[in-house]
């Protein structure tokens, strides 16, 4: 009895009308729960039994009753019949008549012998005897089973994955399951419907692959083919339908097609142009081709544009003006090592086009391999420039750009499921980012890391951080590719061993460089083939008066006037003060005709600089800019520096007197580069520095050649010969720099991240660093094991790590709470215990009546050495504090009596910590800056350079961000977290609150933000949706290129924020995989 009931239930279940599986789901239904999960098997069984009872009742009620007219017209009312008067279709014999013929031809197939044949065929395919008896019992001549109408064979669905408010249009008609007719029907459908059906198939396949459940929620006849058992049942169901009598009121195929076309006509057409769809299809096809090519071959022919869609080439031409790549770039991109994703180091002279190769490799990683990428750059300004430059690519190619510089960046980054991210970071932020990814076990999601200026490995503490970062990547992820590039590398072999990398080098320059030196009043060409390295070229012909010769003994005026104002010139000076003096001196002796050259633009530039300084302007710049001359060094504010760089790039300024930092900063090439002296401060130039400076000569696409002139005194001639002829300096590890601080940081983070926890494992890791490769040269007196163990002992004594006994009797190292907070916050080991003590003391009497106490706690320790207090100013500012603030000062260790005695010049006994006193002076500067928000006023008040004040502000915001992460790891400091997060924001922007949304966009500083706000662009959304053409007309002195970059950067930031919120929503609504059953 039970078996009969089960067999009957099986047949009846397959004959019941199919029901929508997603009918009751909503936008708030968890993603996994929208599919049929195996956890609902009990509910499914109950549902089968209910279907059996409902089907029995329906059959008894409708077995002898014809459908009412209302029921017949339910799906297509006469008023809604869109094809009733379409005579050409109704009378067309070649199509509709053909359907009738097919219908009549299939009528004999409904008899019992036909069913026997089908039964026999399926029995041979493995059906059980019980299933055959079940089929035979329900296929006799009495036709006991009455089946309701099933789903239409051309169910039309319009799916929009991103907009839940759009409904899915489904044509409801009776299903005719005749597979032989499907292709014919599709061939005769309109092209728009074919396109829509193809789109639905694609959406269905994508949805099926994304859902974790075994079933596709969008079930229809256009869905993918079921498994074998479902196919058999489906076919039997179709045969059963064909065997039904006329009393079942099944309509003819003509009516059926008519109803289907009515539903299709009502369906919403895709709101995308045909041209755009074709263009997107071509891009998708090329991306897929590139993926297959990269994965399957190492040949040089990678596809339309080095493995990327041709759209990328169009974007480079549109935004960069690059039509063709140089030969070396094509060679480098098609190297076998690149195709096999081996690590690579490539080196070329400055201005050779290295960055373009890196960007193409990054785009290939993002688009073809669908992996994230990390781009490490040396300075904040370069990071912001790169974010602006690549924003348009991100918008066009659908990836996210995230800035990690200063106080910006989230650790770990948001895990994105729909898009890939390009992280653009400074060296320090890149290290913190890698640490967070290792801890979250997500480093392998980063497929490529590109390091610009790889020679920075040899530059002090920053080089040590870069080495630590790369060593961790090499150890923790075997699938992450590392690409390093530099213009000044010599011992590439050591770096190859460290990075396990291939090497590519070339001496290509797009513009020929000619090097000269000036001795006395003659110019000599640098020629290493000559005995003296210098070959006479020409004498200087500029006529000097006796007064001019006294003021300009080095003939600087003669050298610059040979190229300016029609061409550009850079003059590198040994000190910041010398930059200002030289610029002022040259202006005194220039002809007045220099003022007339682009006079209007220079007047506007002065107005912008004055506006950026809230009415204040440097007296030197006020004198020199009318002549097209300005100085460039760290003493400028960020606004001044940006305005001067933009004016120089546009040709408004023709001469910059600058320090050596410009050579490693933003790209500002010139026709002629003059080195005022072979010294940087008091140190003689290194070969690497010299090559970077002279490498700025020659502007690709503008000049046919560039030239550099080094001004020499007779006493420096021998040193200069060695400078221009010797090879580049070697790049050495800096893990031992500053009393092994780099190695200490490395070992602390290794233990904290659980990368290495025993002395032997730590020694093994250190053996894979650049220091290990160069250990014999750097520390030959001690072996690597001794150095490692000494460092472990130091960290233990400092209370940052502790040792415990392992299960096998070995020593296991663990980080303490302080140690974890130190490496998580990237706090200097020299100050971690001092910071902890300051924060601990602050808990006992934190003063919140004023922000001064919080500012003091986040004032950077390393800035103290760069500033000596003016004791009279210190005392005057101290006396203006409130009583509460003075008590707070005494509590932290700065008594008023001490300041008063220092101001009066009295000698004092030791007893007050000078670090604390000097640090509190810097806190005064920041305190005044947050109240005034005017760098010029604060700089004058404390008698400091305005550039130093702004540098102090930037360092404080970055350090405050580090302190936030430090306090997060120490439960006792929970109260600080919210306070420091808000303080970080105030220190980062230091402007009125209404300007902060605009200044979040990369490259927008206070002066530009004020212009935009006054013009009505008050929010990020305003700027993201602005018209660049309108911006150029509305905002003073904004070029079309600047407007395009600004709008693109705003759109990218807005997209990033929206995507982050969407990821958070999806994560909240995702059905938990570990839900208890």
From TrEMBL:
Keywords assigned: ATP-binding, Helicase, Hydrolase, Nucleotide-binding
Region Disordered: start-end pairs: 199-221
PROSITE patterns associated with the record: HELICASE_ATP_BIND_1 (PS51192), HELICASE_CTER (PS51194)
Composition skew (Polar residues), residue ranges: 199-214
Organism superkingdom: Eukaryota
Domain Helicase ATP-binding: 335-507
InterPro entries, per the entry: DEAD/DEAH_box_helicase_dom, Hel308_SKI2-like, Helicase_ATP-bd, Helicase_C-like, HTH_61, P-loop_NTPase, POLQ-like_helical, WH_DNA-bd_sf
Reaction(s) this enzyme catalyzes, per UniProt: ATP + H2O = ADP + phosphate + H(+)
Domain Helicase C-terminal: 555-747
SUPFAM superfamilies on file: P-loop containing nucleoside triphosphate hydrolases, Sec63 N-terminal domain-like, Winged helix' DNA-binding domain
Pfam families named among the record's database cross-references: DEAD, Helicase_C, HTH_61, POLQ_helical
PANTHER family xref list: DNA POLYMERASE THETA, PUTATIVE (AFU_ORTHOLOGUE AFUA_1G05260)-RELATED (PTHR47961), HELICASE POLQ-LIKE (PTHR47961:SF12)
Annotated protein name in UniProt: Helicase POLQ-like isoform X1
Native source species: Huso huso
């Amino acid at each position: 009895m039970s078996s009969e009931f089960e067999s009957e239930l099986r047949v009846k279940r397959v004959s019941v009308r199919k029901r929508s599986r997603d009918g009751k789901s909503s936008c708030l239904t968890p993603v996994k729960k929208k599919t049929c999960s195996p956890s609902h098997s009990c509910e499914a069984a109950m549902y089968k039994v209910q279907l059996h009872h409902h089907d029995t009742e329906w059959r008894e009620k409708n077995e002898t009753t014809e459908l009412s007219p209302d029921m017949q017209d339910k799906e297509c009312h006469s008023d809604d019949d869109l094809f009733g008067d379409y005579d050409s279709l109704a009378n067309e014999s070649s199509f509709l008549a053909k359907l009738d013929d097919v219908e009549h031809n299939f009528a004999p197939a409904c008899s019992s012998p036909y069913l026997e044949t089908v039964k026999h065929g399926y029995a041979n395919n493995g059906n059980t005897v019980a299933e055959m008896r079940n089929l035979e019992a329900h296929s006799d001549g009495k036709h006991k089973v009455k089946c309701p109408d099933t789903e239409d064979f051309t169910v039309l669905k319009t799916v929009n994955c991103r907009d839940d408010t759009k409904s899915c249009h489904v044509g409801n008609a009776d299903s005719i399951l005749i597979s032989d007719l499907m292709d014919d029907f599709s061939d005769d459908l309109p092209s728009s419907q074919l396109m829509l059906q193809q789109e639905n198939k694609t959406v269905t396949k994508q949805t099926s692959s994304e859902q974790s459940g075994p079933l596709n929620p969008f079930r229809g006849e256009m869905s993918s083919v079921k498994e074998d058992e479902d196919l058999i049942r489906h076919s039997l169901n179709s045969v059963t339908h064909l065997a039904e009598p006329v009393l079942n009121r099944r309509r003819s195929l003509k009516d059926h097609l008519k109803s289907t076309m009515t539903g299709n006509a009502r369906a919403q057409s895709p709101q995308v142009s045909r041209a755009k769809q074709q263009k997107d299809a071509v891009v998708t096809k090329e991306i897929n081709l590139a993926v297959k090519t990269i994965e399957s071959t190492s040949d040089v022919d990678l596809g339309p544009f080095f493995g990327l869609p041709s759209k990328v080439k169009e974007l480079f031409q549109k935004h960069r003006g690059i039509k063709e790549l140089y030969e070396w770039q094509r060679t480098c991109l098609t190297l076998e090592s690149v195709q096999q994703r081996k690590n690579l180091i490539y080196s070329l002279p400055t201005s050779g086009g290295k960055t373009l190769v890196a960007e193409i490799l990054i785009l290939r990683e993002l688009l073809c391999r669908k992996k994230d990428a990390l781009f490490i750059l040396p300075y904040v300004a370069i990071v912001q420039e790169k974010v602006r430059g690549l924003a348009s690519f991100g918008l066009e190619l659908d990836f996210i750009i995230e800035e990690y510089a200063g106080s910006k960046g989230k650790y770990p980054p948001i895990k994105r499921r729909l898009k890939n991210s390009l992280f653009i970071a400074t060296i320090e932020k890149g290290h913190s980012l890698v640490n967070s990814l290792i801890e979250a076990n997500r480093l392998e999601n980063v497929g490529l890391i590109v390091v610009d200026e790889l020679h920075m490995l040899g530059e002090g503490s920053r080089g040590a951080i870069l080495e630590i970062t790369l060593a961790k990547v090499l150890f923790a992820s075997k699938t992450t590719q590392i690409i390093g590039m530099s213009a000044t590398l010599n011992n590439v072999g050591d770096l190859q061993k460290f990075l396990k990398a291939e090497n590519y080098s070339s001496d290509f320059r797009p513009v020929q460089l000619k090097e000269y030196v000036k001795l006395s009043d003659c110019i000599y060409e640098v020629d290493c083939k000559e005995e003296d390295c210098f070959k006479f070229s020409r004498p200087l012909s500029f006529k000097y008066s006796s007064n001019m010769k006294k003021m300009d003994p080095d003939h600087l005026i003669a050298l610059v006037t040979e190229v300016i104002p029609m061409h550009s010139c850079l003059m590198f000076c040994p000190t910041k003060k010398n930059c200002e003096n030289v610029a002022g001196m040259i202006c005194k002796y220039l002809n007045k005709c220099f003022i007339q050259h682009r006079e209007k633009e220079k007047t506007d530039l002065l107005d912008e600089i004055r506006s950026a300084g809230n009415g204040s302007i440097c007296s030197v710049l006020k004198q020199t800019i009318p002549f097209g001359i300005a100085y460039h060094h760290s003493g400028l504010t960020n606004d001044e520096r940006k305005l001067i760089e933009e004016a120089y790039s546009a040709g408004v300024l023709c001469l910059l007197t600058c320090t050596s930092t410009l050579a490693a900063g933003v790209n500002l090439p010139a026709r002629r580069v003059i080195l005022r002296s072979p010294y940087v401060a008091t140190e003689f130039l290194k070969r690497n520095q010299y090559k970077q400076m002279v490498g700025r000569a020659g502007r690709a696409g503008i000049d046919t050649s560039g030239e550099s002139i080094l001004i020499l005194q007779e006493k420096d001639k021998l040193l200069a010969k060695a400078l221009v002829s010797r090879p580049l300096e070697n790049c050495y590890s800096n893990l031992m720099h500053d009393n092994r601080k780099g190695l200490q940081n490395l070992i602390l983070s290794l233990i904290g991240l659980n990368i290495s926890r025993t002395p032997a494992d730590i020694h093994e890791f250190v053996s894979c660093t650049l220091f290990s490769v160069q250990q014999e040269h750097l520390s030959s007196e001690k072996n690597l094991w001794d150095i490692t163990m000494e460092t472990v002992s130091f960290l233990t004594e400092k209370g940052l790590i502790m040792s415990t006994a392992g299960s096998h009797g070995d020593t296991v190292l663990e980080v303490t709470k302080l140690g974890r907070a130190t490496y998580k916050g990237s706090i200097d080991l020299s100050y971690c215990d001092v910071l902890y003590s300051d924060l601990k003391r602050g808990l006992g009497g934190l003063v919140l009546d004023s922000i001064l106490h919080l500012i003091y706690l986040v004032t950077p320790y390393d800035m103290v050495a760069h500033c000596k207090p003016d004791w009279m100013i210190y005392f005057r500012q101290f006396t203006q504090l409130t009583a509460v603030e003075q008590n707070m000062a005494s509590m932290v260790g700065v008594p008023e009596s001490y300041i008063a005695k220092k101001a009066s010049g009295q000698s004092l006994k030791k007893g007050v910590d000078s670090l604390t006193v000097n640090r509190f002076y810097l806190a005064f500067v920041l305190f005044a800056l947050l109240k005034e928000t005017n760098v010029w006023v604060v700089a004058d008040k404390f008698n400091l350079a305005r550039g130093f004040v702004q540098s102090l502000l930037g360092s404080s915001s970055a350090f405050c961000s580090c302190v936030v992460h430090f306090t997060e790891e120490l439960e006792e400091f929970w109260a600080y977290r919210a306070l420091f997060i808000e303080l970080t924001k105030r220190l980062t922007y230091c402007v009125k609150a209404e300007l902060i949304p605009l200044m979040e966009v990369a490259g927008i500083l206070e002066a530009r933000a004020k212009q935009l706000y006054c013009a009505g662009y008050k929010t990020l959304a305003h700027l993201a949706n602005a018209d660049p053409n309108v911006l150029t007309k509305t905002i003073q002195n904004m070029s079309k290129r600047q407007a395009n970059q600004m709008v693109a950067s705003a759109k990218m930031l807005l997209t990033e924020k929206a995507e982050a919120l969407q990821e958070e929503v999806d994560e909240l609504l995702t059905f938990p995989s570990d839900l208890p059953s």
